[in-house]
Design brief:
Number of helices: 6
Radius of gyration: 17 Å
CATH architecture: 3-Layer(aba) Sandwich
CATH topology: Rossmann fold
Distance between the termini: 56 Å
Helix content: 25-40%
CATH class: Alpha Beta
Strand content: 5-15%
Number of domains: 1
Structural class: alpha/beta
Number of strands: 6
Low-confidence stretches: none
Largest sheet: 6 strands, mixed
Length: 164
Protein backbone atom coordinates (compact mmCIF):
# COMPACT_ATOMS: atom_id res chain seq x y z
CA UNK A 1 0.00 0.00 0.00
CA UNK A 2 2.83 2.43 0.75
CA UNK A 3 4.21 1.99 -2.79
CA UNK A 4 0.89 2.99 -4.34
CA UNK A 5 0.38 5.99 -2.07
CA UNK A 6 3.83 7.40 -2.82
CA UNK A 7 3.46 10.62 -4.80
CA UNK A 8 5.04 10.03 -8.25
CA UNK A 9 5.63 13.75 -8.76
CA UNK A 10 8.04 13.92 -5.82
CA UNK A 11 10.18 11.14 -7.29
CA UNK A 12 10.08 12.34 -10.91
CA UNK A 13 13.47 12.84 -12.51
CA UNK A 14 13.80 14.39 -15.98
CA UNK A 15 15.14 12.10 -18.71
CA UNK A 16 18.03 14.46 -19.26
CA UNK A 17 19.23 17.75 -17.89
CA UNK A 18 20.54 20.58 -19.96
CA UNK A 19 23.59 22.70 -19.32
CA UNK A 20 25.08 25.35 -21.59
CA UNK A 21 28.04 24.15 -23.61
CA UNK A 22 30.71 25.87 -25.66
CA UNK A 23 31.84 24.47 -29.01
CA UNK A 24 35.48 25.53 -29.29
CA UNK A 25 35.64 24.77 -33.02
CA UNK A 26 32.61 26.93 -33.86
CA UNK A 27 33.29 29.40 -31.03
CA UNK A 28 29.59 29.33 -30.12
CA UNK A 29 27.59 28.74 -26.95
CA UNK A 30 24.58 26.41 -27.08
CA UNK A 31 21.76 25.55 -24.70
CA UNK A 32 18.83 23.26 -25.40
CA UNK A 33 17.91 20.67 -28.00
CA UNK A 34 21.00 20.26 -30.18
CA UNK A 35 19.17 17.76 -32.42
CA UNK A 36 17.46 20.76 -34.03
CA UNK A 37 20.73 21.43 -35.86
CA UNK A 38 20.16 18.22 -37.84
CA UNK A 39 16.63 19.15 -38.92
CA UNK A 40 15.30 21.09 -41.89
CA UNK A 41 15.92 24.73 -40.93
CA UNK A 42 14.78 28.06 -42.36
CA UNK A 43 15.02 31.76 -41.58
CA UNK A 44 13.34 34.87 -42.95
CA UNK A 45 15.99 37.26 -44.37
CA UNK A 46 13.41 40.08 -44.41
CA UNK A 47 14.10 40.37 -40.66
CA UNK A 48 17.76 41.19 -41.25
CA UNK A 49 19.02 44.75 -40.95
CA UNK A 50 17.05 47.39 -39.11
CA UNK A 51 13.85 45.38 -39.18
CA UNK A 52 11.67 48.49 -39.46
CA UNK A 53 8.62 47.00 -41.12
CA UNK A 54 5.00 48.11 -41.30
CA UNK A 55 2.28 46.19 -39.48
CA UNK A 56 1.13 44.59 -42.74
CA UNK A 57 4.72 43.54 -43.55
CA UNK A 58 5.03 42.03 -40.06
CA UNK A 59 1.79 40.08 -40.58
CA UNK A 60 3.13 38.83 -43.91
CA UNK A 61 6.32 37.70 -42.13
CA UNK A 62 4.18 35.77 -39.64
CA UNK A 63 2.28 34.13 -42.52
CA UNK A 64 5.53 33.14 -44.24
CA UNK A 65 6.83 31.76 -40.93
CA UNK A 66 3.66 29.74 -40.49
CA UNK A 67 4.04 28.30 -44.01
CA UNK A 68 7.59 27.20 -43.14
CA UNK A 69 6.47 25.67 -39.84
CA UNK A 70 3.64 23.76 -41.49
CA UNK A 71 6.05 22.46 -44.14
CA UNK A 72 8.24 20.96 -41.39
CA UNK A 73 10.96 23.59 -41.03
CA UNK A 74 12.65 24.57 -37.78
CA UNK A 75 12.69 28.36 -37.58
CA UNK A 76 16.04 30.07 -36.91
CA UNK A 77 15.49 33.58 -35.59
CA UNK A 78 16.81 36.37 -33.42
CA UNK A 79 15.16 38.66 -30.89
CA UNK A 80 16.93 41.99 -31.48
CA UNK A 81 14.19 43.72 -33.50
CA UNK A 82 10.42 43.56 -33.86
CA UNK A 83 10.55 41.48 -37.06
CA UNK A 84 12.70 38.81 -35.39
CA UNK A 85 10.49 38.79 -32.28
CA UNK A 86 7.34 38.29 -34.39
CA UNK A 87 8.99 35.39 -36.18
CA UNK A 88 10.22 33.95 -32.85
CA UNK A 89 6.65 33.85 -31.49
CA UNK A 90 5.15 31.87 -34.39
CA UNK A 91 6.71 28.53 -33.38
CA UNK A 92 5.46 29.09 -29.82
CA UNK A 93 1.88 29.48 -31.01
CA UNK A 94 2.07 26.24 -32.98
CA UNK A 95 4.12 24.17 -30.53
CA UNK A 96 6.96 23.99 -33.02
CA UNK A 97 10.70 24.04 -32.21
CA UNK A 98 12.91 27.03 -32.92
CA UNK A 99 16.55 28.02 -32.78
CA UNK A 100 16.98 31.44 -31.16
CA UNK A 101 20.21 33.36 -31.80
CA UNK A 102 20.98 36.07 -29.26
CA UNK A 103 23.59 38.82 -29.10
CA UNK A 104 24.40 38.46 -25.39
CA UNK A 105 24.92 35.76 -22.83
CA UNK A 106 22.14 33.32 -22.02
CA UNK A 107 21.78 34.58 -18.42
CA UNK A 108 21.10 38.10 -19.63
CA UNK A 109 18.39 37.12 -22.12
CA UNK A 110 16.84 34.08 -20.38
CA UNK A 111 17.47 34.69 -16.66
CA UNK A 112 19.85 33.07 -14.14
CA UNK A 113 18.34 29.60 -14.65
CA UNK A 114 17.94 30.06 -18.42
CA UNK A 115 14.23 29.43 -18.03
CA UNK A 116 12.53 32.72 -19.00
CA UNK A 117 11.24 33.52 -22.45
CA UNK A 118 13.47 36.34 -23.77
CA UNK A 119 10.72 38.96 -24.26
CA UNK A 120 7.39 39.64 -22.62
CA UNK A 121 5.06 38.95 -25.58
CA UNK A 122 6.46 35.41 -25.91
CA UNK A 123 5.34 34.66 -22.36
CA UNK A 124 1.73 34.78 -23.55
CA UNK A 125 2.38 31.53 -25.41
CA UNK A 126 4.85 29.84 -23.10
CA UNK A 127 5.74 30.98 -19.61
CA UNK A 128 9.19 29.40 -19.49
CA UNK A 129 11.85 28.65 -22.05
CA UNK A 130 11.76 24.94 -22.96
CA UNK A 131 15.20 23.42 -23.69
CA UNK A 132 13.55 20.15 -24.79
CA UNK A 133 11.85 22.00 -27.64
CA UNK A 134 14.18 24.89 -28.49
CA UNK A 135 17.86 25.71 -28.85
CA UNK A 136 19.65 28.97 -27.98
CA UNK A 137 22.87 29.99 -29.72
CA UNK A 138 25.22 32.87 -28.87
CA UNK A 139 28.73 34.00 -29.68
CA UNK A 140 29.04 35.52 -26.21
CA UNK A 141 29.75 33.89 -22.85
CA UNK A 142 26.93 33.15 -20.41
CA UNK A 143 27.15 36.40 -18.40
CA UNK A 144 28.04 38.78 -21.24
CA UNK A 145 25.79 41.72 -21.94
CA UNK A 146 24.14 41.97 -25.37
CA UNK A 147 24.73 44.39 -28.17
CA UNK A 148 21.73 46.68 -27.73
CA UNK A 149 20.88 47.49 -31.30
CA UNK A 150 17.87 46.99 -33.56
CA UNK A 151 20.33 46.07 -36.30
CA UNK A 152 22.89 43.35 -35.60
CA UNK A 153 24.71 42.14 -38.69
CA UNK A 154 26.73 39.56 -36.69
CA UNK A 155 23.60 37.87 -35.34
CA UNK A 156 21.90 38.08 -38.75
CA UNK A 157 24.90 36.35 -40.39
CA UNK A 158 24.86 33.62 -37.75
CA UNK A 159 21.12 33.08 -38.30
CA UNK A 160 21.75 32.77 -42.03
CA UNK A 161 24.61 30.29 -41.45
CA UNK A 162 22.56 28.16 -39.04
CA UNK A 163 19.67 27.79 -41.47
CA UNK A 164 21.94 26.04 -43.98
Amino acid sequence: MSQISQDPLTTFQPLCTFTPWFDSDLKLWFYGNQRLLKGKRACLPQCFGKGKLTESELRELENQTLDLILSGHIIVCGIHNEAHRRVAMCPLRWGSPRIVVVSGGFYHHFGPKIDHEPFYAAQRWRYEFDPYSDLIVSRRALNDKPTCSMSNATVDRLISQLKS
